[in-house]
Amino acid sequence: MPFSSKPTEPIRQLLAGIRAFRARYYDRRPENMRQLVTEGQHPEVLLIGCSDSRVDPALLTMAEPGELFVVRNVANLVPPYQPDGSYHGTSAAIEYAVKSLKVSEIIVLGHAQCGGIQGLIRLRTGQKAEDDFVSPWVSIAASALDPYVGPEGSEQEKFDAERLQHTPAIIERAAVRASVENLMTFPFVREGVEAGTLHIHGWWFDLENGEMWAIHPETRMFQPVE
Amino acid sequence: MPFSSKPTEPIRQLLAGIRAFRARYYDRRPENMRQLVTEGQHPEVLLIGCSDSRVDPALLTMAEPGELFVVRNVANLVPPYQPDGSYHGTSAAIEYAVKSLKVSEIIVLGHAQCGGIQGLIRLRTGQKAEDDFVSPWVSIAASALDPYVGPEGSEQEKFDAERLQHTPAIIERAAVRASVENLMTFPFVREGVEAGTLHIHGWWFDLENGEMWAIHPETRMFQPVE
Amino acid sequence: MPFSSKPTEPIRQLLAGIRAFRARYYDRRPENMRQLVTEGQHPEVLLIGCSDSRVDPALLTMAEPGELFVVRNVANLVPPYQPDGSYHGTSAAIEYAVKSLKVSEIIVLGHAQCGGIQGLIRLRTGQKAEDDFVSPWVSIAASALDPYVGPEGSEQEKFDAERLQHTPAIIERAAVRASVENLMTFPFVREGVEAGTLHIHGWWFDLENGEMWAIHPETRMFQPVE
Amino acid sequence: MPFSSKPTEPIRQLLAGIRAFRARYYDRRPENMRQLVTEGQHPEVLLIGCSDSRVDPALLTMAEPGELFVVRNVANLVPPYQPDGSYHGTSAAIEYAVKSLKVSEIIVLGHAQCGGIQGLIRLRTGQKAEDDFVSPWVSIAASALDPYVGPEGSEQEKFDAERLQHTPAIIERAAVRASVENLMTFPFVREGVEAGTLHIHGWWFDLENGEMWAIHPETRMFQPVE
């Protein structure tokens, strides 16, 4: 039987948090939740973020319930469009957000110190990984490293492996670009973008300094948002 | 070029939220973020929740950055263990949380009014869906409906389809159970549970009343958490 | 020159908090402040609380800007009605709240571990105080101790002094009662109460347990609020 | 009997807020309150603010319980040092903060659209007021208007009355200066300032734009804080 019989301390604290949420959002100021229950959700934004506990989209943007439709996976990756009938959780969420909820904004939110991207760097520079899912998953962005890593087995590859371990931001951002490009392979995304009803944003959060960077629409380079 | 040149209103507001986050977490009370940057993340909890904008795990539990490692997908589903080398985003996050971060708790958090589960009910009762990803994805929990739906094409099936549209909570909870069972097919999850170092929780949030329900460890029935 | 030339750490942090406030209330969600600026304040509640840093009315009640008109002084005292032309800060605030803002509720909010009431107990039991203002100020509630303290200079008084140091809650609540009674000496307060347009509440916050107590309208005894 | 028998809507909401506070500060994250209960309060800052519901010191500075010792009265005024044994609430709080709590900072926080200052302007320009307490109280700062208002009964006085109704900020700030000067008449304040252990700050909050202004330590002029 997988269930523990007595709440552990972390669970006890989360349940206290839920009591506070109920007192705050259902009793103290019920308007917002009441409307969300009656009328359903109408978020304008789909945010694709990382599972990392330090980069919570709602906290980071001071969102309220109802504002952000959120996908979170390891390394905030978007796979390419592959309608093959198998389980594609991220693609399902993108489809639901764009076709059912008709969001007007999609944000891919990367960040510094990403463990998934560290795994990708190791993987792409020839270091073995012993896992079932993380490596295949992060390999979605493997080609993003092409400009930064020498040929397989070369001296340059070893050198780059070393270098990138210490400057992962370049890869974290390249992976955001790759996800943005994969987004555009979804026909319903491309249509919305071309019709001007859907806007795509590539962001990267500098965890050390608390600064957000975004892909500039013209230069297409990452720049700090003022 | 997929990028819009001027921030739309929702984006402008999110950027204002980020300024508030920075002022709050980096300037006003920097201790927490500073530690999370220096020492990395050490969350105790993996939470698998829905992308629905109304059920944000951090808001709902009053979490702070660093506390929850979060996966969010449509209908908070866990697929079965399938280490076949293809893209399994949710499984990758579970693997990373359990093996690398060594979380002690896994919460599967379902909720009322779940659009993904509505899709599953339609799908499972013979109504055609025109989508590429949502239907295959939610079919992860299809067998959870078996006790509640008559044989394919039967009169009972039609009746059940109608009925379940109006009482989806029973299916939303059955889907949480299915995900909890799928979790146990992951060898590293099962090991942790059997060793007593990992605890699994099935929760369902009553959006109308703000009450959390949980699978009781002994009766295994959903009950409101006091 | 009384001004320091470089912000100290506490000031630096408050200024960071103000930046967060501006980003949150002026940029992220400007509606509330915009309305309060355009239409002026219309609070329904006057709260008379203690200056104690642990019992902040806005935090304690999760208030937003515009909701509470607040007086804070040592021991949350209301002096009797004395329209003698001298400086009566608390009385001025009561007058402004009732006559100009037309609040419908007045709350006198006392609390456990009140330093001002400790001073009052010492004062009332014959212990000398070396201060210019605190003792005269808290003596507003001196008569509230009459039922609990023996005659001046008596053995009983010594005994009571000792006892009350360890059970100050009884005096903290008696002082709230005294302030409520003083409130009723203000003609414009009495009129509102008698007309049914103004309601008075006597509260006491149990700092140790986080529980609020209130004077019950019928029994007039302090009871925990459900 | 002054107590209403059934909670009105504003009271019901405040009680819900208190439930949220308890869940948040006593159950979810109890460390801070537990320490404040065990060790008592040790605020570093005394803030003297206005009762105005729109300028709540804790919200404005994102303070937590325990950080700010707060006096709030009409127009955030400090009377001059008058140790005459009568009721001086603000002076008592200053004395308690400086002598018992040994705060290192005193902030006088004024703000735009101050109703108390409007009353002072009317009073000082010959308009009758029908009140018992507000006019005597705000007259604490009456001399602050001397540079801005012509002689009593003069044409210039009428002109200035009209002008100042539309530019009250100049008087709001002059009143902050007056309070800062009155603070320095308290011997224990002056001692602390001269010893360098106590710092005084004169602030004014621009309610329209969300900007804080402060008296510059050298020029002594009000300037926006970066």
TrEMBL record, chains A, B, C, D:
User: Per its Swiss-Prot or TrEMBL entry, what cofactor is needed?
Assistant: Zn(2+)
- SUPFAM superfamilies in alphabetical order: beta-carbonic anhydrase, cab (SSF53056)
EC category name? lyase
Q: What is its EC number?
A: 4.2.1.1
Q: Which InterPro entries match?
A: Beta_CA_cladeB, Carbonic_anhydrase, Carbonic_anhydrase_CS, Carbonic_anhydrase_sf
- Write out the residues that bind Zn(2+): C50, D52, H111, C114
Would you say which domain of life the source belongs to? Bacteria
Q: Which residues form a coiled coil?
A: none
- What are the protein's GO molecular function terms? carbonate dehydratase activity; zinc ion binding
Swiss-Prot/TrEMBL GO biological process terms? carbon utilization
Stated family? Belongs to the beta-class carbonic anhydrase family.
Mind telling me what this protein is named? Carbonic anhydrase
Q: Kindly list the organism's lineage.
A: Bacteria, Pseudomonadati, Pseudomonadota, Alphaproteobacteria, Rhodospirillales
